[in-house]
Design brief:
212 residues, mainly alpha, 10 helices
Length: 212
């Protein structure tokens, strides 16, 4: 998690240098976190953490299962996202185990929080994307049309996120545990390439190339 934070900070700094109003949306995110931590119960917060880990692990699986998802991304960006995917999958069980074994979180809270976390994550993603598009000079109408055009890509019949439906809904089963979902099949490729080259860019590229 420490390395995770460092990677995000470095990426944010690079975006700032490129003229993106990063502070605007990070300030909003900090306000959300401050509200959740001070106004919500510890049980609610550990449930939200576990739910977020569930979502990000599934997104990692979905985005890297098929090469076409990131085929137009810069290799450095693909490598960063690949590292992020591996990092999420390697510790996705931890928050869930704390929630179940120590947190005393009611089942109703656990289930509700995933729905709320999904809405918050998607809403914040749209908010952040629109800020960056505005910075790049797109008008409100252009941004709205982009969002409408993109929704089927996410949620259409063959949408990228629709593909996660079965695993997403597993969360609502009483006996669910993240370990029931296998790690992404390219995982060994990333590990082996990193060990051979000590180059995270090469490992990320090999990880992406191993997709379908």
């Amino acid at each position: 998690e420490a390395q995770h934070g460092i990677a995000h900070d470095k990426m944010n700094q690079l975006m700032k240098e490129q003229g993106m109003p990063v502070d605007q949306f990070t300030a909003t995110l900090k306000k959300i976190f401050r509200f959740e931590l001070t106004k919500r119960s510890p049980q609610y917060n550990i449930a939200m953490t576990a739910a977020a880990e569930h979502l990000t692990a599934l997104m990692a699986e979905t985005f890297y299962s098929h090469k076409k998802t990131l085929e137009n991304a810069h290799p450095y960006v693909r490598a960063l996202f690949a590292w992020h995917a591996i990092e999420e999958m390697e510790h996705r069980d931890v928050a869930f185990d704390v929630m179940k074994q120590v947190g005393e979180v009611p089942e109703s809270t656990r289930r509700f929080v995933l729905v709320l976390t999904t809405v918050l994550m998607f809403g914040f993603t749209l908010y952040r994307t629109n800020i960056m598009l505005k910075c790049d000079g797109f008008s409100p109408r252009e941004r709205l049309l982009m969002n409408l055009k993109g929704l089927p890509w996410f949620f259409g019949k063959n949408g990228t996120l629709t593909a996660m439906k079965s695993q997403y809904l597993d969360w609502f089963k009483k006996d669910f545990h993240p370990s029931q979902h296998p790690v992404i099949r390219q995982y060994p490729v990333w590990i082996e390439t990193l060990e051979k080259t000590n180059d995270p860019i090469a490992a990320g590229e090999a990880f992406w190339q191993a997709g379908l």
